[in-house]
Amino acid sequence: MSGAIAGAPATAGSVPTEAPGRAWPHRHLLDTDALTWPQIQLVLDTARHMAEIVSGARPRSTALRGIGVTNLFYEASTRTRVSFETAAKYLSADVVNVSTGGSSIEKGESLLDTMRTLEALGAKVLVMRHATSGAPYLVAREFRGAVVNAGDGRHAHPTQALLDLFTLVRRMPGGSLRGRKVVILGDILHSRVARSNLWTLTAAGADVWVCGPATLLRGFEAWAAAGVGGERRFTVTTDTAAAVRDADVVMALRIQKERMAAGLLPSLHEYAARFGLTEERLMTAAEGCLVMHPGPMNEGVEIAADVAGGPRSLVTEQVASGVPVRMAVLSLVVAAAGIGGGAA
Amino acid sequence: MSALATRPKVDAEIGKAVDLDLSGAWLVDPASGREGPADVVVRAGILESVTWLEAGDGGAEDDRGVVVAPGFIDLHAHLREPGNETAETIASGLAAAAHGGFTTVCAMPNTTPPIDRAAMVIAELAGAAASGSPVRLLPIGAATLGRAGEQLAPLGELADAGVVGFSDDGAPVQHAELFRNALSYAGMLGLPLIDHPEDLALTAGAEANEGLVATVLGLKGWPAAAESNAVARDIALLAEVVRDVPGTRLHLTHLSTAGSLDAVRRAKAAGLPVTCDVTPHHLALTDEWIAGARRFAWAAHGEDGEARDPWRDRGLVAAPYASSLRVNPPLRSAVDARACLQALLDGTADAVATDHAPHTQVDKDMEFGLAKPGIAGIETALGVLLEAVDAGLLPLSRLITALTTGPAGVLGGVVEPGFAIGAPADLVVFDRAERWTVGPDSLRTRGWGNPLADRSLPGVVLLTVAGGRLAHG
């Protein structure tokens, strides 16, 4: 699975931090699986540069001036869509938002036809959110510009994983996750955030644990045994106490109410009691343990309100990191795709 | 080896009686169990003589070149007419069959409307006659009205109209009591009940075989238990029904898991009248193709028989989520694919059936989980199986029986594959030494998206003769 498969040859772009050995060949960003560690670092370095634009320390960039960025969202999302939109605007892109509740089938137009329409309307970068795993790969097969996956089904959410890493690396003493115990807690089975984070966090050398009820961990024991990318092991447990003990980071995931109707969970109450992230549970974590959540949160279910709003919480920092990280991703894919602005 | 002298030359047009002199090609006759070089003469469609040659008589020295076999029989195909003629018609489906070496095709009843009344059977047979193809279409009737799984279809009337078995195929009967009744009633009529074994409660929304690939790609898992559950139920019901209705026959189609094939193996050992088939794609392809691997199943497991990890092997060479690979049942693990091959070798599987399932580009070229399931593989079946033969895993003679006497046995004598002198010739001639490239230009089906597109396969079908008439060549 590589975002680079359909890619055009890399073109040297105007990315400020590009250095030999870590060129960015990816015309699309569909998942984090295709990224090497140097490429991940390139995103983080570029995002640091972009953060200075966001903070006002540097002037707005014109990197994407005249380039059409279309946000195509088949699932409702405020935070991710606004984050991408803001990022594109900081780069002077022309932003178009297309939101649709139903799937392409319900609309009666195929995803490829929708893509061709948007392409004809000037989209050069397609930021795409879709309920079906793998949907952006179909679009990337034919789209002439760059595709950025903003979440596909339960498969991947690469910019979320990259902004999580950006946030963590900033806060981690020494700036490295190597050997740090990072726990992803919750509905792992249905989580694109968990999957994309497994690639980046193991690439960063973290000791990754995933924890949740057995019904929501189905299949992960086998993946853990095989290793991410066939080599990078992680740990699977249903024991929240064991997971949190000595943890340096705990990332709680949102629990959807549909899981009860599907018979995967007895009740939110029981879930909160066994898997909810509370200050009490965090007593056994490593000193200074950080807490994350990709949002939106069900406070009192997967995460206690005092944890979410407490000093350990990186939740608002995660949201803030989203803009510079997405600016970095947009500028890197545009350079790799050789997309020009203006009348082009 | 392939000798040009043995290449058949036929002047007839499609549908016309054939005159044929095949000299020294490798003949495989599964009815007698004999194979070797032979001369075959056909006059006006009638098989006039078969002369087995001795070594040194100038015939083929081995089975690696031009091979002659009885025409192939497909127990499971979808011709889409009436109702979805953009995906396939009887004419295009039969042309595809002939191109694949098939002279008999059993057509599943999930057309629109379904084949659940005698008038529909008659119309289907009329359509086959009108197509001009000499390929024999054998209709399968629905087991329940409208394939709705609520009450029996008029099985007796369907039998009188000419169906060779009953099946609701992709809408398998979930109600155990109704399935038991269908088994009894079909048994009374002397016809097999064909089940697509799937416990639908376990497969709601399922996208890919439950396993490493589905986990990593975030596709909803399709558990093997969905198949073994249904197979266990069917066999338990069969064991009881057969005591009352000795003529009962159960046929399980496109088995795809080691567990369900084991259950059939045990049921056969216990003497139950159960048969089953496996498909070329479940034998040769695995779920790792969805992740982007493109190696055949026999290269996808280690010496220990366990499935290898394509990520560890750096075996992912194509883009993931190709919707041409979406099929029901799903492509399974290399362990399951090996079990399909083993079942074929030890006789647990009676036949290879293609489950030829063409779809339009509109229905297929879309998001993986939303694409219609099905692989239109009637033209690639021979080539895929020959890959297994070339890999040393499947004797050519077993390939031939799995496509001829095996399915004929399932049908209970409706078709008699062989080389009977004085009867209309029904045969296929293919060249194992020649390869062809799969793609829209080389396929006759209207179905979009073959997962083997752009790949070359061994075994060019030179000639297909059905009922004495030219079907392909």
Would you give an account of this structure?
The complex is a heterodimer of chains A (344) and B (473). By secondary structure, chain A is an alpha/beta fold. Chain A is built from 14 helices and 9 strands. Chain A has helices at 37-54, 79-90, 104-107, 111-120, 135-142, 158-171, 192-203, 220-226, 240-244, 258-261, 268-275, 279-282, 305-308, 315-337; strands at 68-73, 94-99, 123-130, 146-152, 181-185, 207-211, 235-237, 249-252, 290-292. Chain A has a 5-stranded parallel sheet. Chain A has a 4-stranded parallel sheet with strand order 2-1-3-4, with helices on both faces. In chain A, strand 1, helix 2 and strand 2 form a beta-alpha-beta unit. In chain A, helix 1 crosses helix 14. The radius of gyration of chain A is 20 Å and the shape is globular. Chain B has 473 residues and is of the alpha/beta class. Chain B has 2 domains: 1-70 and 417-473, Roll (Urease, subunit C, domain 1), CATH 2.30.40.10; 72-416, Metal-dependent hydrolases (TIM Barrel). Chain B has helices at residues 90-99, 118-130, 155-161, 176-189, 212-217, 225-244, 258-269, 280-284, 288-291, 334-346, 361-364, 381-390, 396-403, 405-411; strands spanning 20-29, 34-43, 46-52, 66-70, 72-77, 102-107, 136-139, 193-195, 208-209, 221-222, 250-252, 274-278, 351-352, 427-437, 456-466, 469-472. A 7-stranded mixed sheet of chain B has the order 3-2-1-4-14-15-16, covered by helices on one side. In chain B, strand 2 (34-43) and strand 3 (46-52) form a beta hairpin. In chain B, helix 2 runs parallel beside helix 3 and helix 6 (225-244) runs parallel beside helix 7. The longest helix of chain B has 20 residues, at 225-244. Mean pLDDT of chain B is 96; it is low at 1-5. The A-B interface holds A 1-2, 5-6, 103-105, 110-112, 130, 132-135, 137-138, 140-141, 152-156, 192, 195, 218-220, 222-223, 226-231 and B 207, 210-212, 214-221, 291-292, 309-313, 316, 318-321, 323, 362, 365-370.
